[in-house]
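Please check our next protein.
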Amino acid sequence: MDKLQTAGSVSRIPTIIEISNKGTAPCEMIRHLSPLCVRIILNSLPIEDRIHKISESIIYIETKLVIGAEKQKNLFKRGDIAYMTSNSSICVFLKDSVVTPMNHIGIVKSNLEIIENTQSGDAMIIKRS
């Protein structure tokens, strides 16, 4: 059992969100939430684009990936990461939100304040840690 715990989980893949000139936030992509979606995103890393904001509760970057709906939900908590099928975007939730259905793909583990302090137009990179 100790060997499994130290080896890490195959379901939770460590990733990093990096905001240019501002810092990094450790994240996890969680396979069981949306297995096909997470696999496609992981195979496409690193993903980089400019940040867009939807009010004060969501930031997102466009990916150009075409992924269908999978295990969608519309209630997300602060720090959740989701894939929006309508515009091929990866979203990070800054506040608990009820939104149009999205594929839940992961979580921000810490340093969410770095993401909260971004401006539209800042560069964001999602990569494996």
